[in-house]
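Batch job 17 of 40 flagged for manual review because the log was empty.
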Amino acid sequence: MTLTLADLHPVLGLRIAAGPLELRGITDDDLLGLCALARDGIHPPDQMPFYVPWTDAEPGALVRGTAAYHWSNRAEYSSSAWALELGVWYDGVLVGSQGLRTRRFLTTRTGETGSWLGRAHQGRGIGTRMRQAICAFAFDHLDAAEVTSGAFVDNPASLAVSRKVGYRDNGRQRLERRPGELAVNQQLVLTPGALVRGDPLEVEGLPAFRRLVGLDGADPLP
């Protein structure tokens, strides 16, 4: 049997559809479009919504760093630590990225969501839809017991998405955002019964992904 890239890395065969929204594994061809979206801007230069200020890099370093992150993430998958990073398409157009990062998931059954949208696609409700989709996927298909998130208190748009989806406040942290800059981060937590659901999910490629992260045993190659 001929091997495919999805055989080698099952994330590339994963697809989650919810109405006009699609989340799927990011191929190298997709990565070119994702890097271009990041280069074209995610937030105003005087703002920083991310824990790690990766978007402060100059354009060349930004696109190379974005690609390197996704390449290294593929290589670092294990049942003890993994980060599911999916491209987001809306009405067939690539608009951003949605992630779910975990550590010791087989024991903790928890993961942290993180996402971004290109600026041209913000303010259309897509952020809420993609968060609903990844949380429903975590609860319904990965057996998660809770999902966490966080946002700086000066990022009301992200906090509004979390609260629409059903997260509740879970404490605050004082963090260094940019060098020498203090920022307060609002922590959030979501449980299955509190999730405000969106469109029903259609999922492809789930059995191989569950095996990849240790939920259903080993993942032998064909």
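Reviewer: the log was empty due to a logging misconfiguration, but the result itself is present. Helices lie at 5-8, 28-40, 59-75, 105-108, 126-141, 156-165, 206-212. Unflagging and moving on to job 18.
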